[in-house]
Amino acid sequence: MDNKTIEIDKVVHVAPAGRRPMERIEAVGLGLLLLAMLTLFFFPATLSGAFDTVLNKVKPVVVDVFLTGQVGVAVIISVIIGRLLERLGFTDAMMRVFMPAMRAIGINPAVIIPSVYNIFGDINAAGRISGPLLRQAGATKDEQKIAVATMVQSQQSFSTFMLGMMALTFAGVNVFAVVLIAIFGPLLLSPLLLSRLVYRNVRSVDLLAAPRFTPNIDFAPMLFKAAREGVELLLLVLIPAVALVFCVIGLLEHIGIWAPISDVLERGLLALNIHPETGVLAMLVSPTLAMGKLQAMAATLDPSLVVGSFVLASSGLPLSAVFGQIPVVWAECSDLNEKEVMLAAVLGIVMRLLTAVVLAVFLTPLIV
User: Over 80: is that where the pLDDT of 368 sits?
Assistant: First the structure.
């Protein structure tokens, strides 16, 4: 082998004739290296202090709340309950109720599939399963946008729903009324309003065969699989996402700019009758974590704040899902591009925020 080639793992790469020019990202890396060296020389405690701040911010949530706390156990149990209800035909029963309602509204019945499937939580699976079904059912692009906007108005995790019900109970709120209006109400009202006011290219069709979502596996394997799914959700999805967001928050806190950001967000949510701390958690971190904290203090809070926070958390939040996960999944599985999916999801979240405000202000006095 001469000096013109380099052999790595049996793959021969021919060296370029001249020296490779420096890329922009390499210049950024050199700048960061220089900054790190200067920081270590002049302010050696800065980096260690930043790491310590992040560690102290992440550890109480990841370890004390999820790994050894009530919220982590609740996530696993809620997945088991959700899959048990699904095995007992609950999802297909709701399809039988809501699909004819969509036909009565005058839109493709398949529009409601992602929202109903998402009741038990898994917003990514709802997109992967429902996108192709909407295509097969001949849903227009406007109807697919309605499906997205409606789907994000139900919780993206069944554990959020279970913990939220505990919070409503501890606050002395009529759980049935809140669940009926806040969870099932949008399944009818959202397609009706959107099809009349925003996405008007809709048509009613008759589906020859409704999709079946009840699994045929035996109960014992299904329960074990559900328990494993709950652990995977906890360890592979929730904890990494929470750790990442709190890592960023810890860095911003160390720099000194998180406090004013948090203050603005909390003041805005409080003005909307949504509990500030849990509202911020639902928007930026995890609705499941938000409901876990809410149920721990719901008995001492104004019931309207509990209702508002529950309704907001029972959605497609956090924002990372709205602007990241949902557009990517639906762009792959439907006729929509990422921008169209994102706009529909944002519209759905805005409707959910308005629903939270209306129910917190006007419904709570009637059901406490």
Answer: no
